[in-house]
Amino acid sequence: xxxxxxxxxxxxLCLLSATALYAQQPPSSVVTAVPPLVRVTSAFVPANGLxxxxxxxxxxxxxxxxxGGTPLWQETQDVAVDADGRYTVLLGATLTDGLPLDxxxxxxxxxxxxxxxxxxEGEQARVRLASVPYALKASDADTLGGRPPSAxxxxxxxxxxxxxxxxxxxxxKAKTSFGSVVGPLTAGTTGFVGKxxxxxxxxxxxxYDAGGLVGVNTTTPFDAMHxxxxxxxxxxxxxxxxxxxxxxxxxxxMLFYDxxxxxxxxxxxxxxxxxYRINNVASGGSINFMLGSTSKFKADLNGxxxxxxxxxxxxxxxxxxxGGGIAYTGLVVRRINTTNTVAxxxxxxxxxxxxxRDGTFGGFRITSTAFMDVACMGVNxxxxxxxxxxxxxxxxxxxxxxxxxxVFFHCSFGDxxxxxxxTEVSLSRSPGDYFWIGTVTSTFNQ
Length: 446
Prior knowledge:
Layout: E1 5-8, H1 15-24, E2 38-43, E3 55-63, E4 73-80, E5 86-91, E6 111-116, E7 127-128, H2 132-138, H3 168-172, E8 181-184, E9 192-196, E10 202-210, E11 213-216, E12 225-227, E13 251-257, E14 263-270, E15 276-280, E16 287-291, E17 294-300, E18 303-305, E19 309-312, E20 330-338, E21 346-349, E22 353-357, E23 364-368, E24 372-380, E25 385-392, E26 395-400, E27 406-414, E28 422-428, E29 436-442
Parallel strand pairs: 11-12, 19-20
Antiparallel strand pairs: 1-2, 1-8, 2-5, 3-4, 3-6, 6-7, 9-10, 10-11, 13-14, 14-15, 16-17, 17-18, 18-19, 20-29, 21-22, 22-23, 23-26, 24-25, 24-27, 27-28, 28-29
């Protein structure tokens, strides 16, 4: 990231003035010190979003703390600002003696605050002047053993504070001023991702890294990504995804991968058809809508289950065991394709009664564990009705034996007047075929 630098310059003699005075006066060991100044270059972006004025009034303050506290020193200046908001200011320029050297006598870090005097503006993030104490302390004659500055050759920019004194003669050819001491003009808090608070200054963004967990507007993320906000008007939801494509395959959504990196699920909104698609592409996958620990809607390879409503499916062979491992209730609708003639093969059921193949070419029987009603209407290939209305006790009762001429029948069995389940089956076949196809509708899971 780009860093803003503070140039610290303490001028002991103005070069042009020093040249003129040297030409007019005899050599002297007395040197008049120019007030110590600190040059700062930065940028100003007004809070109201409008361009800065060509001249702005700014209050500059030096603190012992990064935040809060009372200024150790401050002054107010009018500064020239260019079209991009950049400006340069000399700290201490309004005072005869410049910056007080005792500000930095302790060697502790100092923080610079800047506040532009216009409505709505607060103090900008403070920046650390880490190099200033050493540069200004070195300009104090007391710290040079009381010798005049002409007795020393000062360090070049970037050199250490004690780099090399020279003879007085050599000093005549040296500049009697410090070079630039460069340090970063940035501010921020550990853990926060930085952002430019001005075109050249860094501060804290809303993004926080807590040991690999990322929080937006929170420093205590609950998950790998946590967005925290307050919005009572419904305009914000925490995440916006927009695909600018407009084709039939343009989706805005999310992809989910398993621990091996294989795509497991896709969900998204189609920009062209306006379909919202949830697609579990994992082998043997399902989609389960739950309230708490209770399934309310589940789709899997066996169909769709809606507890308390309807189960739909296109299934063949023997129906699954009652409950299927989950206690579904409500109306069940299924397709039946009964090709197995083995006695006891279940076609449909209630909780106490089953409609089964009886082992003959096209026959059926009823097996019951309680007293129940059975009502069946059959039609043979000649159009003759073959009806069965039975009140069955527990046991096995023949319903249609062999029934080679039967082409259609509809049976209702169960307990229509009590609290038990009721099942209806409609089956048909071609004359002479041993298998039947049809549907079953039941209040008991099939």
